[in-house]
Amino acid sequence: MKQAGQKYYKELIDLQDVQGVEAQIQGLLEVKIESVSELEKWLKDEKDLMMKIAEALTGHQVDFYRNTEDPDIKSTYLHDQQTIQPLLMKYEALLNEKCCESPFFNQLDEPRYGLMRRVRETKIKLFREENIPLMVKEQELNTKYSEIMGGLTVEWEGEDKPFPYIQSMLDHPDRAVREKAYHAMMSAYRQIKPDMDAIMDELVQLRHQIALNAGFENYRDYMFVAKNREYSIQDCYDFHENVEKHIIPAWNRLADIFKSKLGVDTYRPWDNTAKLMKNPPYSEVAKLMDGVSEMLGKTDSYFKDRFDYMREHGLLDLGDRKGKSPGGFCTSLPVSGDTFVFANFSPSFFSLIALIHEMGHAVNGYLESAEHGPQEEHRQRAEVAELFSHGMELLSLDKLDRFYPEEEDFKNAQREELRRAFTMLIGPLAGDLFQHWMYTNPKHTAKERDAKFYEISKRYSLNPVDTTGYEDAIGMSWAGTLHYFEVPFYNIEYSISMLGALQLLENYRNNPEQAVESYKKGAGADYNQSIAAIYEETGVRFDFSEPTVKRMGEFLEKVIQDIH
């Protein structure tokens, strides 16, 4: 729902003119390349065209997420998904072949073009013409998911409220209100569960077929190659085990602290939330933005400058309303050189932290753009991106008194942010394990899926929780996680990067100025490097081995104990 005078993206290409778009791409295929310099010029021309297309596609997608009920916006978005995306998939393969088959391809400068070469070679390896309609269908199912979740309302005290409003009630200090909100959410999930099961069943089968067509045994193995991961499947399984061994016991001890503070005998599902605050941190979005601007400014003037710029230029959409897609994200507008932050949250501690998190992504995007110009898609490795979003949260830990001026409230807010650090180590990792199971067992039933989700949840984030009587409710709650539908296997990156962010917090506690400078250096680092090299520039290590997991768990506990 664009506001008057707030056109936040550039439409330099008319995606409705399919023949015109195709002609421009076809023109690239007809160019003769007879030297390394000509190949470099061709790559720049290709990049310029693809960025124009990408910005228009991104703008249309954000428009749809902002208002899933507007028929014109939806029509534009569906045209992109059903017509433009298949066209791009087809031509991407041809452009990749032209580039990789050029006799000058291997003469390109390795530090500058190495990552791009590896990504293109992977795409050629994975591309199958017969997968294009399957991927289009996959996008259609994701659109259906967004529509269902965007239109989901819950009756609350006689009024229909957007689903995020009920989620925010899980932070309420009154335990009875939290329990009521939990039951309301589970009731909402039950209403949409048949649709969610049908969508997920079809997604699993589609994705399994995509993997088989590309020569893989399952979609999990396919995605590890597609993501060009710099670690193995076994590394992930080891990480799952290391966290269960070293982080879960610390998580249970933290739960005991919360149980004591709540004065309860049993820790129930509605207690496993940010519930120690007396009130939401803000009442209206303007107040949220005022406070976050101040917090960012106290961390670094550049952070505040970027936030204020985004606020002034209509690049933030943060309130909750009916028809708005769920969740929150930050996305790049490559031609404009801007980033857009979308969030559908009601006033809550989580929504405050989520905005700071997304601003970490935004700062990363602006610094990379300033240092290296418009960024291609292949640079967006989640292990890197999430380091700067988690890192921004933890760099802001000592400024939460802007929203919680009373000393005990401030301490509780810090405890809750550190609790979130635990959950971002544990929850996404459990979600990763859940997806390993789903896609290596593609013939599973909806009932088996719910049972597996409950089993994994109980091993990890719900380990200290008394779940008696709520096994079925917990089992179906996977339906509320956008990642499982729209960005499969984008989960473990949160956990890996949280280990890096905790190292950043450790550095910040020793030398704040140096830690912030290292953060900015890493956030603007040359993205063609390995993930490990970018982490090193940020002053931390890309490491999720058992010793590091154990050490960071102990550090996290110590920081919590320091807030006495």
Notes on the protein architecture:
- Strand 1 and strand 2 (159-162) form a beta hairpin.
- The chain has helices at residues 18-29, 36-66, 71-100, 110-126, 132-150, 163-168, 175-213, 219-226, 233-246, 248-262, 285-299, 301-312, 349-372, 382-395, 407-440, 446-459, 471-476, 482-486, 492-510, 512-523, 531-537, 546-562; strands at 153-156, 159-162, 316-317, 328-333, 338-343.
- The chain has a domain at 18-127.
- It is globular, with a radius of gyration of 23 Å.
- The strands form two sheets. It has a three-stranded mixed sheet, sandwiched between helices. Strands 1-2 form a two-stranded antiparallel sheet.
- Helix 7 crosses helix 8 (219-226) and helix 15 (407-440) runs antiparallel to helix 19.
- The model is unreliable at 1-5 (pLDDT under 50).
- It starts with 17 loop residues before the first helix and ends with a helix.
- It is mostly helical.
- Belongs to the peptidase M3 family.
- Keywords: Hydrolase, Metal-binding, Metalloprotease, Protease, Zinc.
- Its cofactor is Zn(2+).
- It holds the Pfam family Peptidase_M3.
- InterPro entries: Pept_M3A_M3B, Pept_M3A_M3B_dom, Pept_M3B_oligopep-rel.
